[in-house]
Fold:
Amino acid sequence: MISSAEGLPGPGHTGRETLDTQGSLIIRNVTTLDAGSYTVVMETSAGLRSAMEQIQVKATYDGVQLVTFPGNKQGVLRSELNYSVILQWAALITPEPVLRWTFNGRPRGTGERLIVHRLSMKDLGTYLCLAENSQGVYLSQPVTIMLPQADVEPTEPAPISRNPPLSLSGGSAIALVVAASVVGLVLVGSVLLTVIQKLRCLPSLPPIHSAPQGTELALQQD
Structure:
């Protein structure tokens, strides 16, 4: 009994039930525990009259949030391979539901807790828990298991010079010096050969003899 004819609370009163002036029963914050049969008894001049009403309460969820280890962020759980992952249903529903898990839409176990031992590549994907009782079927929010992302800072490309300086070291520098020396020797040899050839082409000149001593040169004057 929730309330007596005098308005006194009965053993079934939880503090959420009230009777208005018209004799209507008002239940606030309805839960699945409020489902059942309700009987109202009215006393009139003709005697007692009663009426019974069956109330069914169906819980609806946008999706029960799962408890996970490691924790997830917005439904994404990141974990390294070979580590264990735990997914657990944490909602209380009456009557007690049967819990089933799916992985990428395929059955993956039963019970309130799903443990993925030694996570491997084939375990990466989306997990969902379904709870079913006489009131209906309830779904959890999906949790997707992924590998951690590598946090790599973006780098800017190094500027490219239009005329980059040429630097040589080691064997390359020695080879360049030797090549330059050989080219220099070839050029010098070519110049000397050209000079010698030109000297050979010059006409022969008569020998110059000195005048004998005591000879006087007479200048003829016109």
